[in-house]
Model the fold of this input.
Amino acid sequence: MKLIKNVNVYAPEKLGKKDLLIAGGKICQISDNLDIPENWEVEVIDGEGLIATPGFIDSHVHILGGGGEGGFANRTPEATLSGLTRWGITTVVGCLGTDGYGRDLTALISKIKGLREQGITAYGYTGSYQVPVRTLTGSITQDIMVVDEFIGTGEIAISDHRSSQPTYDEFLRVCADTRIGGILSGKAGIINIHLGDSPRKMDMILRAIEETEIPSTQFLPTHVNRNAALFDQAVEYAKLGGTVDFTGNEDIDYWVTVSDEVRVCDGIKRMLDEGISSDLFTISSDGQGSLPLFSADGQFLGIGMGQSSCLLKEVRECVQRENIPLEIAIKAITANPARVLCLDTKGQIKEGFDADLCIMTEDLNIQTVIAKGQVMVKDGEPVVKGMFE
Ligand code: ZN
Done:
């Protein structure tokens, strides 16, 4: 059992100063002043002067590593436990990417199982960039039904020179099969869609919503801020009720100068200013994914790597640069992804929910991270690490 005393709770809504009691990996009680009987064995964590938010959910991480664009030497390394928890991430959704060949679904599931054994919550998407989708059981629907780790399909690439150039009908079949898998298994059945730089933008998604019975809640288009024209369309999509996923950036000052990427805090501010619900945006990291830079004619110029640290960095920018209240900004990496991914006990500080927590200073520096009741980070340093970290 753990008792966090006098901590300022953002659940994500602002609850004020509370005591939080954790037992059996769950949040048991939230109250003003909790008195624990003396004979109870409780670890007390002093939250005075600190804030507590739900643990962060990163819905798009290349946990096996990514890359290989530009050649085999550019393959990026796997995610590590402490590389996630150090930055507040207690739930991660893993995906393949451009390379669904050199890395496959068995390896992805093995990595997910490893992260689970190490103490955090992990899921994944079946498939990769390619359509037809390479699955484990031979069917997208069946993969989602019988493979506990899979909650959807992705990242399916459209509007990108690296995509498999799926036709509209092929794309639609992937969406339908994923939706059925979700319905039959009680999971999200979400289609995580990688959007590239092409002027076709989100056209296929908008057409699917307009022409079929598949609702916008089935889609999680990502990288919506990769260029200004795409983001304009993403804003219109959100006005129709769709949730859009921003890709955070560790070195945002660099990328906004070499591309017309939209700064996450600017994008979220614009959505709020245009009256869009604060439920309709998420931020993910594209962690361990390669960030290749191509010239206008598709020539490979150079490469960087996505990092999970960007989630907190982007939220900090929202608060400190754009004056977006923390209780709104933090939804992008807690309650909103939990809702979209149907993770029913995640993303909120609420009695009965999983005890996934980030305890931070007022200026949003991480002190303590708790995953399913276990302290993973203390005084900003990981105290639980994988065997080879
Ligand atoms: Zn992508």
